[in-house]
Write a sequence for this structure.
């Protein structure tokens, strides 16, 4: 599937994400700015924070419990559509997904 990362300045980066991987990996392996992912995907750093586009909130679903707690430690404000991109599993259903990268991660 193709996923779109929108940077704080409105620039969009379209990348191909592998099914069965996580969103954070797609960002990091394609050099998308603004996803720091300090902990490498363990839901313990909150530097891979994204805002799922309002239109896709239901598709992506809510965070799990560990992620939910970690989302209280994001550098940028937490919003109802906040997710840690390392906890979002990529599947074909997410083709065309848009996520917004926050202004700051650390
Ligand atoms: Fe650290 Fe996602 S990479 S919480």
């Amino acid at each position: 599937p193709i996923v779109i990362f929108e940077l704080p300045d409105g620039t969009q980066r379209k990348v191909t994400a592998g099914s069965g991987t996580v969103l954070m990996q797609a960002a990091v392996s394609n050099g998308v700015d603004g996803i720091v992912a300090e902990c490498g995907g363990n839901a313990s750093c909150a530097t891979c924070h994204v805002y799922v586009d309002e239109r896709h909130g239901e598709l992506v679903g809510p965070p799990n419990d560990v992620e939910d707690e970690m989302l209280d430690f994001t550098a940028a404000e937490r919003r109802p559509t906040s997710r840690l991109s390392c906890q979002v599993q990529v599947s074909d259903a997410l083709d065309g997904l848009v996520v917004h990268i926050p202004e700051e991660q650390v």
About this structure: The mean pLDDT is 97. Residues 24, 37-39, 41-48, 84, 86 surround FE2/S2 (inorganic) cluster (CB under 6 Å).
